[in-house]
Amino acid sequence: MGSTITLHDLTKTYPNRQRAVRQLSLTVEDGEFLVLLGPSGCGKSTLLRMIAGLETISGGELHLDGKIANDLQPSERDIAMIFQSFALYPNMTTAQNIGFPLAVQKQDPGQVTAHVQSVAQTLGIDHLLNQIPGRLSGGERQRVAMGRAVVRRPSVFLMDEPLSSLDARLRARLRTEMLAVTRSTGATTIYVTHDQAEAMALGDRVAVMRDGVLQQVDTPRTLYALPANAFVASFVGTPRINLLHGTVYAPVDGVMALNLGAQKITLSYPLTHDHQMLRVVQGQPLLIGLRPEAIRIADKTHATASERAMTGVVEHTEFQGHEALLHLSLGGQQADVPAQLSDHIPHHQARTSAADVLRQLRRRISLFGRHPALPGATEPPAQSPTRKGIGELVIRDEPGARHRRGQHIPLLIDVRNLLVFNARGERISPDPTQVPQL
Ligand SMILES: Nc1ncnc2c1ncn2[C@@H]1O[C@H](COP(=O)(O)OP(=O)(O)OP(=O)(O)O)[C@@H](O)[C@H]1O
């Protein structure tokens, strides 16, 4: 059995006034495997340590199974923690290390031996029960550490980058084993990592943090397809999402398009509700997000109804074995992820509903008549891109393809896969987290 962990506005300010976690609210369901993901220093470990009781809570509330737990001692929380550098007792054998938590509880030695044997078997280390840690490999030591955490069947596992010191192959194998072991106990798990691939592979849900602030918590699929903001979009997925500066061009009596500098992407008609809404932000600086799979190399004669032709100029190719990454110039400008606004806690509730904004928008358009009078309408130029040295677009290519530097490549962009963020980086299309206000 696991526990439900609820955080209400959890905050940590260190004595040096470093605000490591800011008003973080989140519920981890009983038996869930939640991954905390974010760059180094974003507050993941601090959050985990507050839940474990190893760090005092500066503000907000921690609930375990509905009961406030802010001031419970670590030993009163029924939580096991596993770290990257988990210290095993160097003079104890594997069996003694695994059995230690039970021995401390003064359990019957016969039962302890049987229990240790069964845990070691599950983790594939039963042949190492008489070895001391110094004679074990990194992966084996980590399995022993896992065994020691599992043996007392806690209701919560907190894991802080437990595999980061291991090589890539062993990590991939151990993480699958770890997932299986925690699932078999039914415990609730919070797993910290800064490796997005690991997070996506493991998590029932993934909570993304930045500068102490929770950005989004969702299933890996939703996180990838509907990132709440440009930071999440660029943190999740390899190769990274392409972020380009762009504006909306929306003449009242013409075809709506996204202006990317030298080239444009016309939108599909009939416009989706989300694309209709983009009219509201006409002329405003936006970030256009294009995942590599939204773009393919093909001539416009092959375009489907939702694909638009563009031209890219090859800057360079990165060979990756199973694929190649092609860096291209579009004649646009690559955008950075906007800085976190200090104290900006993202809230995903729209102030006005999308339907309301669309109603107002239609009324305004009918008032303007046939004149493209909404502010900010500048028709995108249609220029041919030139090489700049650094491409702003990265797409996947066949590993055997031989594209020359400076070569013009025909591209098809699927407008159904466009992500649009406002200048603060909040997603406004599709399915806006912040409905653009008129
Ligand atoms: N004891 C402390 N005193 C003061 N500041 C601290 C302390 N521990 C951590 N910090 C600061 O709090 C912030 C969050 O640190 P934390 O270790 O929680 O981040 P993290 O996301 O786990 O990073 P990493 O992935 O590198 O372990 C950092 O700016 C860090 O320097």
UniProtKB/TrEMBL annotation:
Keywords from the UniProt entry: ATP-binding, Nucleotide-binding, Transport
Gene Ontology MF annotations: ATP binding
Residue intervals of the ABC transporter domain: 5-236
InterPro entries membership: AAA+_ATPase, ABC_transporter-like_ATP-bd, ABC_transporter-like_CS, ABC_transpr_MalK-like, ABC_transpr_MalK/UgpC-like, Mo/tungstate-bd_C_term_dom, P-loop_NTPase, Transp-assoc_OB_typ2
SUPFAM superfamilies: MOP-like (SSF50331), P-loop containing nucleoside triphosphate hydrolases (SSF52540)
Protein biosynthesis recorded as keyword: no
SMART domains in alphabetical order: AAA
Pfam name, any one: TOBE_2
Top-level taxon of origin: Bacteria
Protein name: ABC transporter ATP-binding protein
Organism: Streptomyces glycanivorans
